[in-house]
Design goal:
This protein has a five-stranded antiparallel beta sheet with strand order 1-3-4-7-6. Strands 2-9-8-5 form a four-stranded antiparallel beta sheet. The longest helix is centred in the N-terminal third of the chain and has 10 residues, at 3-12. The protein starts with a helix and ends with a strand. 10% of the residues lie in helices and 47% in strands. It is globular and about 45 Å long. The protein contains two helices and nine strands. The protein is mainly β and 156 residues long.
Length: 156
């Protein structure tokens, strides 16, 4: 299993999402009374593996903050998993690749996270609703946690 798949499945037990969705989320913020980054246009695209080719999951989101964007951590998890992950759970997951976007330079970024999905991982994944949780961090230390930045349905 790839390192990325292990990271996504650390809490969920498997790395597979299916479907598509787009959400905007202000989320829960951290820091000294400061507001955290804004996460918008969150979406995911899933390509199922075939007998001879791995599939993939790609999550993208627009992240912005007046101080600049430091990173965006990403975790996929099944809705049937109680309790939902929290911001502390995000400390050990991988970050998306974030590139400056728009006219605001480094104060806004398009963040993309892609992970390979093998046939074996797909077979181990629970059916039903899934979510993608994110933790966005700003240069000034502010954070935004969105446990359900995007949602999907896994079908066998």
């Amino acid at each position: 299993m790839s390192q990325r798949a292990v990271t996504i499945s650390a809490l969920a037990g498997a790395a597979l999402l299916a479907g598509a969705g787009a959400y905007a989320f202000a989320g829960e913020t951290g820091g000294s009374g400061s507001t955290g980054p804004e996460v918008t246009k969150a979406s995911a695209a899933y390509v199922a593996p075939t007998a001879d080719k791995d599939g993939s999951l790609t999550f993208t989101a627009q992240v912005s903050d007046d101080s600049g964007v430091r990173n965006l951590k990403v975790l996929a998890w099944p809705a049937s998993m109680p309790p939902a992950p929290d911001a502390d759970d995000m400390a050990h997951v991988e970050s998306a690749a974030c590139e400056p976007s728009g006219s605001s330079g480094d104060k806004a970024a398009l963040c993309t996270y892609t992970v390979k999905v093998t046939s074996a991982e797909a077979a181990e994944s629970p059916n039903g609703a899934w979510h993608v949780g994110v933790l966005a961090s700003a240069e000034n230390g502010g954070t935004t946690f969105a446990p359900k930045a995007a949602g999907f349905t896994v079908k066998s």
